[in-house]
Amino acid sequence: MNTMKLRKSWKETASNLKQQFTNLTDEDIYFPNGKEDEIMGRLKGKIGSTKEKLRKLISKL
Predict the structure, then answer these.
(1) Taken in order 55, 47, 7, 10, is the CA torsion positive or negative?
(2) Is 22 helix (H, G, I), strand (E, B) or coil?
(3) Three-state SS across 1-61?
(4) Helices (H) and strands (E) in the chain, counts
(5) Widest CA span in the chain
(6) Per-domain residue ranges of the chain
(7) Model pTM?
(8) Residues 58, 17 contacting (CB under 8 angstroms)
(9) pLDDT, tens digit, for every residue of 1-46?
(10) Nearest-5° angle of CA 10, CA 43, CA 8?
(11) Is the dihedral of CA 37, 40, 45, 50 positive or negative?
(12) How far, rounded to the nearest angstrom, does the alpha carbon of residue 60 sit from its chain's CA centroid?
């Protein structure tokens, strides 16, 4: 499994995601430690993208 690489803290990254995708809620971006697959599934459904594209997007924020 590939893991997300973050340039900033998750809190900052999540804030940037919410600004870019206004349909995301706090629940959508909640990321408990060790639950990457769970959040990727939620984001995939809301944003309409593949997990790999989401990882690339998140790593750039």
Answers:
(1) negative
(2) coil
(3) CCCCCCCCCHHHHHHHHHHHCCCCCHHHHCCCCCCHHHHHHHHHHHHHCCHHHHHHHHHHC
(4) 4, 0
(5) 28
(6) 10-60
(7) 0.79
(8) yes
(9) 457 778 889 999 999 999 999 999 999 999 888 888 899 999 999 9
(10) 15
(11) negative
(12) 11
